[in-house]
Amino acid sequence: MAVVMLLLSSACSGRKKVMAEAITERDSLPVMDTRGVTTLVSDSGITRYRIQTEEWLVFDRKSPSYWAFERGVYLEKFDTLFQVEASIKSDTAYYYDKQKLWKLMGHVVIKNLKGEKFFTELLYWDQNREKIYSDRFIRIEQPDRIITGQGFDSNQQMTVYTIHKPEGIFYVDQEALAVDTLQHDTVKKPSVATPSSNP
Question: CATH classification of 30-181 is 3.40.390.10, yes or no?
Answer without folding.
Answer: no
